[in-house]
Amino acid sequence: MSTIPSGTPGAVSSLELERRAFRSARKQRSILVSVASTLLFAAVLVAILVLSPGWERVRATFFDLGVAADAFPRVIAGLWINIQVLVVAVIGVAILGTLLAVARTLRGAVFTPIRLLAAGYTDIFRGIPVLLVLYLVGFGIPGLELTGRMPPQFWGTIALILCYSAYVAEVLRAGIEAVHPSQRLAARSLGLSHGRTLRLIVMPQAVRKVTPALMNDFVSMQKDVGLISVLGAVDAVRAAQIEVASAYNFTPYVLAGVLFVVLSWPFIRLTDWMTARAQRREQIGGVV
């Protein structure tokens, strides 16, 4: 590679080259220290587990590969039900959460009942544990006999939508209110209606501001999908419970947990990546 002579336009000074070399060496040293400390921590953790007095009993009870292989087809079939419920719930939460967020940000005295209704909804469903909502919806609404017999996962999906739409609505509302008022005023001055201003100007900026928080809610809902088993749905958790009762071994629970982690891991990493990207964008030149 040719070197640009010092003093010519675009040339890198020797001092800057020394700084780059120093930063590169420091980065390599940090990577080595991180790898070494991680390996040391993992070795200590494994040693504590393996050398503990009851390790053999725990290994046979929770980490039996034969039991895991036998239970895998039924647990993975149950996980497919969890995935189906999750997909429908995400769509329902996105629609209901957006409507609630817009309702809470409406201005004008005439919209007071709508704002109060939306605020009451979010207060109630953010305050009640998800498990209780599942019980109330799954065992209460069918008792009204408004519909025919529906599967447990249907009522579980309704309960998840009711709970998580309240959380998502508050996150979206925070994003909407974080958009500077000048954006609305500029859009209205160009002749856009309130609805088009909200759809074309405000919501895109609001969603971008709160995307990491929305992704966190999604990951949390992905985990809570397993709670529909309390209604009798044979999902991954219920299938694991059946296998545990058959084999007198807790390995199917570990298997179900691993499958949920595998399902969540891509979205967790995506959330971290989007959070880091937003932080870099907002702190350009400010990172020490």
Automatic annotation (TrEMBL):
Q: What is this protein called?
A: Amino acid ABC transporter permease
State the source organism's domain of life.
Bacteria
Q: Transmembrane among the record's keywords?
A: yes
The record, for NCBIfam families, names: HEQRo_perm_3TM
Question: PROSITE patterns from the xrefs?
Answer: ABC_TM1
Query: Gene3D superfamilies, per this entry?
Result: MetI-like (1.10.3720.10)
Q: What is the lineage of its organism?
A: Bacteria, Bacillati, Actinomycetota, Actinomycetes, Micrococcales
Q: Which InterPro entries match?
A: AA_ABC_transptr_permease_3TM (IPR010065), ArtM/GltK/GlnP/TcyL/YhdX-like (IPR043429), MetI-like (IPR000515), MetI-like_sf (IPR035906)
TM regions (residue ranges)? 30-55, 75-103, 124-142, 154-176, 250-271
Keywords for this protein: Amino-acid transport, Cell membrane, Membrane, Transmembrane, Transmembrane helix, Transport
The main location is: membrane
Q: Which organism is it from?
A: Leucobacter allii
- Residue stretches making up the ABC transmembrane type-1 domain: 79-271
Cited SUPFAM superfamilies: MetI-like
**Which PANTHER family does the UniProt record give?**
GLUTAMINE TRANSPORT SYSTEM PERMEASE PROTEIN GLNP, MEMBRANE COMPONENT OF AMINO ACID ABC TRANSPORTER
Q: Where in the cell is it found?
A: Cell membrane
